[in-house]
Amino acid sequence: MEHKLLEIKGLKTQFIGDKKIIPAVDGVDLTIHRSETLALVGESGCGKSITSLSIMGLIPENGKISAGEIIFNGEDLTKKSEKELERIRGNDVSMIFQEPMTSLNPVLTIGEQLTEGLIIHDKLSKQEANARVIEMLKLVGFARAEEILSEYPHQLSGGMRQRVMIAMAMATNPKLLIADEPTTALDVTIQAQILELMKELKEQFQTSILLITHDLGIVADMADRVVVMYAGQVVEEAEVESLYENPAHPYTEGLMKSIPSLEKEQKRLYSIQGYVPAPDEFPIGCRFAPRCEKAMEICHEKAPNIYSLGNGHHVRCFLYKELEEIVEQ
Amino acid sequence: MVKFIIRRLLGMIPVLFVISVLLFTLVQSVPGDAFTGDLNPKIDKKYIDEMREKFGLNKSPVEQYFIWLKNFAQGEFGISFKNKLPVSDLIVDRIGNTVFLAVTTLIITYLLAIPIGIYSANRPYTLSDNTITTFSFIGLSLPTFFGALLAIYIFSINLEWFPSSGTVTAGAGYTGIQYLLDRLHHVLLPAVTLAILSVASYTRYIRSSVLDVKQQDYVRTAYAKGLPRKKVMRKHVLRNALMPLITFFGLDLGGLFAGAVLTETVFTWPGLGRLIFESTVNRDYPVMMTCYMLIAISILIGNLIADILYAKADPRVRYD
Ligand SMILES: Nc1ncnc2c1ncn2[C@@H]1O[C@H](COP(=O)(O)OP(=O)(O)OP(=O)(O)O)[C@@H](O)[C@H]1O
Ligand code: SF4
Ligand SMILES: [Mg+2]
């Protein structure tokens, strides 16, 4: 069996907005191995969600994939028809979203929403689908799973709804689960429970996970590898240990410093100055240069390439230009 | 639910009382009365005074109101000043025509507006959507009476496709299916004229509602499950987007009895709308009061029905 489950090469996803082109995802490479958890990290607006929606083929109507390949399980998803994508979505690749409060249809019962995917993909009857869903609901921690089936989303708390979403996503036993900030909207204790649940399920189902977050704090606990995105590009990629021990990119360093720490008494929380540039006003040189504390002259003139620190630890920054250069696809 | 309905019905009584006081005051504050206009010199002034006395018009307004209220509460709607017939007979005569016109209008409205609204929402800002938008605004800004006259001019007088007045062909003596077709033939022009207006606003509303629901997170979830587009539209988008129409349906139901005063008048359609028009011109208080109260009651009932239907359709809404 091929070791790589998903390989994204040179992905560009653009939007057409007010007569100009918005390059939201601008040449992203990333790989997810089988039963691996890959964290995709970056501030708001870096293009994390659009990257994941590109995999699903669910980019908003005014956008399109303009270049690149998304090889999933040996097949290029960008070349698939809508019908073929429908068979993959929710079946081989499932997704859960940030807002559990609004991600479920308010007027359909939980049972109806949980079974419809199974009925389509696994050709189950209503009864079989119900049985499977009850099993899944128990697995994600509902003691009274049978009753939940006939309840409506508004009767459940945010944490419970996210559990429902996870049950929905895992019911078809997907090869890849994309979780787009699955705990951002939840409070801290619930957040920990949901992450714990995801880890358990991942062990049990051997699912690969693409965990999107802007919180480096949860990454160490969850992920095997990390990809850091900035302004539509990957700026650093490494194994979790390697990244935490040696954050190479100044942006990653900044993100690390902004993690609130319980051990150290901090007077003020660090935050990177400035903000992520909008996709239609990316700087010419290094896209991080205007905010970078280590920026050099060259950074404002040329865009940096990717350099290898060894062991699969790559960084897009001129500070490492003496190292081996990685050729982009 | 029965308790809810009873509570709501009881709650209507004080509302209707206040409305009746306001209506009575309005009706009374119009100068003159039903007999002021009788300028026929042959009619003896004494006779008019007798009539005024007979109909209680010489009593104080407060006294008149309570007499009216007592009768109305007992289902005694009085006698029309004008044609000396019981008001209830006049209304029974007309109500069928008005309901027939209103129901036909509603059906035409839904049949046109729902598909057009959805079609528009599925291709926003394209040529076809913009064309529909333009026509909607023309439809919205067209005054009813003008639209009605235009329709008569084009389709009755020039093209001779539809009759310009009445509800049936007089003296044709049709029966069965032929009678039904004849009635449909007569109702179509006024109904379409009335429908055009509401089609315009309904189309706008449905378009924006569908566009809004299409952006909702749960629709993205439905796509992420791998549901085909058609199924997502039917099951997740339309159900949510069209639900607010229930409220409109309730309002339309209420407006049903108000009839379309102008349209009925232009098309000489013998419905409640024209009865209201005629009685107002003649200051025929008993007819006016009864018609207005009927409208008030039907609006309140229409709202109640909308609330019941809404609670059935949307699990988040509870009866309380
Ligand atoms: N439909 C759209 N039309 C135009 N631009 C869009 C659209 N959707 C997203 N964008 C732009 O693409 C960029 C990337 O958005 P994306 O949602 O991927 O960010 P993100 O990294 O997921 O951020 P967040 O943490 O806020 O979710 C943003 O600058 C956003 O403004
Ligand atoms: S390339 Fe220059 S500006 Fe960009 S991150 Fe590295 S040091 Fe900073
Ligand atoms: Mg996002």
TrEMBL record, chain A:
Its membrane topology: Peripheral membrane protein
GO BP, one annotated term = peptide transport
Specify whether Nuclease is a keyword of the entry.
no
Localization: Cell membrane
> Quick one: where is this thing mainly located?
membrane
All copies of the ABC transporter domain together span 6-256
Q: Which InterPro entries match?
A: AAA+_ATPase, ABC_Ni/Peptide_Import, ABC_transporter-like_ATP-bd, ABC_transporter-like_CS, Oligopep_ABC_C, P-loop_NTPase
Q: Which Gene3D superfamilies match?
A: P-loop containing nucleotide triphosphate hydrolases
- PROSITE patterns this protein is in? ABC_TRANSPORTER_1, ABC_TRANSPORTER_2
Q: Which protein family is it in? A: Belongs to the ABC transporter superfamily.
- The organism named in the record is Thermoflavimicrobium daqui
RNA-binding found in the keyword field:
no
Q: What is this protein called?
A: Peptide ABC transporter ATP-binding protein
- Gene Ontology, cellular component aspect: plasma membrane
List the keywords (alphabetical): ATP-binding, Cell membrane, Membrane, Nucleotide-binding, Transport
Read off the Pfam families from this record. ABC_tran, oligo_HPY
Recall the GO molecular function terms of this protein's record. Answer: ATP binding; ATP hydrolysis activity
From TrEMBL, chain B:
What family is reported? Belongs to the binding-protein-dependent transport system permease family.
Keyword terms = Cell membrane, Membrane, Transmembrane, Transmembrane helix, Transport
Per the record, the major location class is membrane
GO annotation, biological process:
transmembrane transport
| Top-level taxonomic group | Bacteria
Please give the start and end residues of each transmembrane region.
Answer: 99-120, 132-155, 187-206, 241-267, 287-310
Instruction: Using the record's annotation, list all stretches that form the ABC transmembrane type-1 domain.
Output: 95-306
Identify this protein by name: ABC transmembrane type-1 domain-containing protein
Q: Native species of this protein? A: Thermoflavimicrobium daqui
Please give the Gene3D superfamilies that the UniProt record associates with this protein. MetI-like
Q: Where is the signal peptide?
A: none
Location relative to the cell: Cell membrane
